[in-house]
UniProtKB/TrEMBL annotation:
Family matches, as Pfam families: GGACT
Top EC group: transferase
Protein name per Swiss-Prot or TrEMBL: Gamma-glutamylcyclotransferase family protein
UniProt-listed Gene3D superfamilies: Gamma-glutamyl cyclotransferase-like
Keywords assigned by UniProt, alphabetized: Acyltransferase, Transferase
Molecular function per GO: acyltransferase activity
Organism whose genome encodes this protein: Flavobacterium gyeonganense
């Protein structure tokens, strides 16, 4: 099983059903030393506004989110869902859990 940290879209029940065909159960956690910044992504019907985690120069900055336990197959589905504007990396959360996260590419 894999751990994935979501600070945005993958927390949506509608998106979870679309991507994984099920609802995920997660635990609140925090990514320290990162901040969110605005990101515009061109999609089928125009430009959409999102945000992306990016390393911060301030170690007290933090991004709140939820860590989910998912299968390797579900991780591959998340990779397909996320835009090329993001890359998946492993990080250690405030709780000590090592998880995958999508950050700025």
């Amino acid at each position: 099983m894999e751990q994935i940290f979501s600070y945005g879209t993958l927390q949506s029940k509608e998106i979870q059903m679309q991507v994984f065909n099920k609802l995920l159960t997660g635990t609140p956690d925090q990514l320290t030393g990162y901040k969110l910044k605005d990101l515009q992504i061109e999609e089928e019907f125009g430009i959409e506004d999102y945000f992306v985690a990016t390393p911060s120069e301030n170690p007290s900055d933090a991004v709140d989110g939820i860590v989910y336990t998912i299968s390797s197959a579900d991780l591959a589905k998340a990779d397909q869902f996320e835009s090329n504007a993001y890359k998946r990396v492993q990080i250690t959360l405030k709780s000590g859990v090592v998880a995958w996260i999508y950050i700025e590419n």
